[in-house]
Structures are given as structure tokens and as C-alpha cells.
Fold these 2 entries.
Entry 1:
Amino acid sequence: MPVAIITGASKGLGRALGAALAERGWDLVLDARTAEVLEETARALSGSGARVTAVPGDVTDAGHRGELVAAARRLGGLDLLVHNASALGAEPLVRLEELALDGLRRALEVNAVAALGLVQEALPLLRESGVGALITISSDAAAEAYETWGGYGASKAALDHLAAVLGEEERGLRVWAVDPGDMATDLYAAAVPDDDGPRPAPRSVVPAFLRLLDERPASGRYGATSLLEQR
């Protein structure tokens, strides 16, 4: 069975993608900081018959990243790494003049530095897979200027560039940066708590990710909306 590591997997997009992969017969290694919620997610996803390993911890911790890769190795290898874990830098979001530098550092550390650290740890297994793929979760804030989204957007722009260069350096892998678009997630609620407008559920964009895995287009940056419209 193919094996995937998904960070930030206890809820939202990470959980929705994990559920879809489990239904397809994938074995999973799931990461999140809150152990109880992560373990409940792992139990729910294992109901489809998949082997699901919950590894609670913080992706900024090198030891934890090693544990994630070791768990994948015990399942037989690694075919897909999804870096979905994210930090906003401030909750709720604030203008750059008010953004604490420690908040910016946290966003960069989680969204970009830890992502590269996990890739470095996982590369040997991804290369051995023969069909190894990396998905990084981007944002339109990485490419567009929105008031109060500066710190988060800067960290996602850094992640986009890391993914683009990895796609050039690792020609044997597929490296996709994916902007999922607006979704009803806890992260968005924390970012803009006063915005209670309707937004699609994370599961609604999962078919876009599955299309990437099915069709394996060239490494690059993709928008979930475009992928769904082309189906």
C-alpha cells in the first residue's frame, strides 16, 4: 500500500485529505500538536482498513520530524508528503506595523523552515518510492497583497519558492504547491474572527488534490479551483 505523511492532519484540510487517501487504500502517518484530537482522527480514518499512525508533536522540532519519517519507514516507505501545518503569526491577523517579530518568526518557522526540514528528512524515502510526491499547501496571500495578511503571506511565499526550487532539483519527484482557496477552517476563523461569511468545507477541494495524484502533472504551483474546473 502507498504511504503518506500529512502534517496538520487532525482537522480541516489535513483530515479531509487523509480520509480520502485512506478510502483509496493509503496508509497514513498523521501529525498535529493536540494529541487527543489527532488520535481521534486516526481512529476514525483507520475505520476504512488503512493503517494510520498518529504522531503528535510540533513540526518545528527536528526530533519530531524524524519520528514522522521513522513511522513511515515502519509502514514500508513513503510515497507522498503533505506539508499542511500552518501558523498565522498573529491571531487575529494584524497590520504589519503591529505584527510582533516573534509572530513572524513563528510563521516562517512553521510554514517554511520546518517544511524544508521535513523534506530533507524524507527525501531518501521519497526517492526510493519511484513515484514520490510532495504537496505544500500555499495560499493566495502568497501571491496577492491583502491587508493584515503580510506575515502569513510572506511565509507562504517563501514556501512556494522552496517548492519551486525543489521541483527543479528533484526531477524524479513531483513537487506541487497548491492554493486550496477559501475554506471554512479553524485557521481562517482565528485569522479573521469577525468574518462569518459562508465558505466551502475543506472536503470540497480534496478532488483537486486527488487529480494531481492521479494525473501527476509537472511540478509547479496549482490552484484547486482551476483543477476542479478542468475536471
Note: The two ends are 26 Å apart (CA to CA).
Entry 2:
Amino acid sequence: MVKVGALVSAGVINSEGFYTVGGRTAIDFANSKSRVGHEGEGLHSLENLLTFLKSQSLLHEDEASSYHMFMFQNPARCEQVMADLLEIRREFVKALDQMANGWPMDPIFVSDLNDKLATFPTKLVLELLKMAISYKKSL
């Protein structure tokens, strides 16, 4: 088995064991089901999610401390957030698989995801862009 340090040096995983693919956080999130050096689900708790976000440089340790207090005070809500997040990831992986097989991203997935995002205090909205590619043959 390849040593974890070699995988980190090669840029395959980050120091927390999460896969990294060319700096694409969305793809890394899709791959977060597996975590090198850890058994089972890579994001089995909000604590793991915070670790993932910090390892992606999306969350500073100071910011994470306020979430730790939230976890302590609201364990049931944290479990629900994680269940929702894992469902989003499952659907996202399914959409990526469809795209990898030549199908466009399902607009129902985009709509459902935006509905879920609307329940959080966020400004994030996923837009499905239609791209037209033209080919001009030069004579």
C-alpha cells in the first residue's frame, strides 16, 4: 500500500486524507465519501465536514470554533444537516456520473439543489448554463 505521505506529496490527497483533484472543491466534495487513513464514510459527522472545509482552505480554525459550539448545543440539527448534505452529495455524484457518460446535467437536480440551498442562510444558487458549441470548417 502506498504511504499517505507519498499521496499527499503527489497531490492525490490533502493532509487530512481527503482526495484532491486539480483544485476542484466540488469534485473533492463528491469524492469525500472515502478518506484515506479512515474507515467508513469520510463525512460521517459535522466535525468531519469542518475538517474537510478547513483542508480545502474554505474555513479558518477561528470560524470553525463557532460551529463547534453549535454542534454542542444542537446535536439533532447537526445530524439533520449532515443527512441532507450526504443526500446532496449522493445526487451530485449521480449527476457527475451522467455527465461523464455524455449526458447533460439533469435540470431537476439543479432545481432540487437550489430548493435545498434556499433553506439555508446563503446566497448560493446553482445555474445550469446551456452552452452552444459551433464548428466552423475552414476551406
Note: The chain has one domain: 4-117.
